[in-house]
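Running this now, will post back.
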Amino acid sequence: MKKKLLLLLTILFCSVLSAAPKLLRADWKKLSVLEKDIALLTACWMEEYDIDYSDFNYALSKDILKREWNIDSKFELIKEVKAGFENGYSVVFAAGTKLIDTNPQKTPAQISIEQEYGRTNAGYLFYIYDIRSKVGVHGFEAYDISKSLLLLRLGFAVSLISKSELEEYAQPLIQKALSDYVSIQDFAGHFIAACVLSTISSYKYYKTVDDEVAAWTNAVNILPPKDINFTGLTADRTAIMQIQDGVYIPSEYSSQLIELTKLPGGGYGADGIKLIKEARERYGELVFLDSLYENLEPVRFNKKGTEAPADFFEREYRLLWDSLEEYEKFAIAASSNVLERNNQFHLDLSNRVIFPKVSWTGKEILKDTWGITGKEELMNSYEELGRGEQAAVYLKLKNLLLKYPELSVLEIGTKEALTVTEISRMYFVKDKMLLLGEHGLEAWIDARRIAILRWGIGAGYISLNEAVELIKPIAEKIKGDYTSFEDFIAHWIAGYCYNEVFSSTCPDCTIDLIKAIETARAYIPFEELNFTGSAADPNHSMTIEEAVYTPSEPAQKMIPFQKLYKAHNSPEVYEELVALEEENPEYKNALFYYHLILMVEYSTSRERLDFVESNLDYLNSIPQTSEIFDDVIFQYMHDLTMCYEPEKVLSLYESLSDMLKTNLRIYYYYAYANYEMANLSTNVFERDIYISRAVNAFNQLKKRGYLLGTFIECWLNTMESL
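Update: finished.
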């Protein structure tokens, strides 16, 4: 048994030896001094390509030159040899040291940000900053010398250059190497230090360096270095190295950046997010940090599994949560329902980390749901939300309820000429305004402002720093406006229900919202948020149960009208509206404006005139300051004009408020009615008055930029030329 084991070990040992480059003493002795120097200075490459150290006629040299450098001529060979010193590692080292020397008060991170460096160039700069004193004045020249000698050696092997040309090109390189370094170990240490540069941004960095150390160590142990005369006449005596010295041990300052190189290797979730976050805090906004997020693979909670969300959180995300700043925790929690229902990852404020294959990106959501495709649109939406948007309409409806406590919702809607949706939502407001208290729908607005900013960061429309400056005050406001997360999210759910009144889905809309809260607990411990409640409604903290909206019986009667109002206009919708009005005549006045809108598309001017004039009592009862009154009067004047009833137009115009009389589109029909009356009048004196009024009115409209049309322009020119 022992003999068999010994035999196996012997075979294995011999196979290893046969795979490594060989050195036969007889062959070595046949080499010239030049060839021995080249053999030693290129020994590492011989290990890589499995070439015997003393073999200057290697049969596969042509394949190596073509595969690695696309060289198959003398011109290309010499060009590549020269390029090694014109744009090789030595040039990178020189450029890096120059940047560092000319910016003595700045860190490598600050320089990298100013230069807009990507991951590779920033890695170069950090590395050079760390090892420049270690490699000394000769920097990375050892690598460029060795590579050039290798190319010459391979070119000679395939007869691209002669032996005399080999000597001509190689001798100066050899002399420089023997003078600039004191030993093959010194040369090898510098060579390895240069090799680190090529892999500094690669997650395979450590393995690559280990291979280089092993290759040089093997070569030094096999080759007779005493045959090589290192003079060290021009060596940097402050930077003499051994082979192992070429291994890079990052400084405390650079360690986090080097650790980031592992992220593209995959397998990073919460710890990767922490790495990028810490790098941002330490180094600032390096341009390549964003691209690293796509390499992260966060663990997703299995909603169908048996594990409790809280247990999953403790195992997977406790450390990440604890590393977040307070404003981040509040912002993430506030927008959690939105992100959870879009299958997005919560604990990255910048919304760059995704669950592969299941998440919409923030960019997609902004485009498809908000119509946002850039920074300007993002900021417009953010500002519009800040101005109140639906919260402002909520407040308007609330104030109307307080103004008319004796009236029903339908009566208020009729009196104030509210839209169909405003009436539908007023039922919600009446039911919930006491529970919602002072802050009304602000939670709904604030959460969405945070959400679009988070999506904007991930979409690249706004920087993290810009967004954080906007998010922080919102998070602080939320912290003070509510007494707990339940109080906040209940207000948010109520806001969502208010919004969904438009779709008439409010009875069912809260089911998914409440489920989202529970599954989001796998990432967010909501109970740990410290709400101060310093500006909370002192009379009531809302619960989730109270947020659920079940329409009252009068509100339910409004739902069929609301569904029609939401649908696309069509003759069928118009017919259904007429049928609903006949079944529910008490809604007739409230739906007057919506009815007229449909008639504009699906009726004649005469039919619209009859409809408006049969409802003049209602029209005259609503405020002239309302947009509906403005729109109806415009349509009424238009239809009167189309039916050739200018006297009614003028009479209607005189009954309007001074503010409406200055409305350009209404003033136009006043002018046109005078034009028509001039054409109808048989009395010369009256006709001149109408012409004078029409000319004056049309000129006023022109001065204010109103387009009159070709026909009226020609008539006006004719009248003014008389």
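The radius of gyration is 41 Å. More later if anyone needs it.
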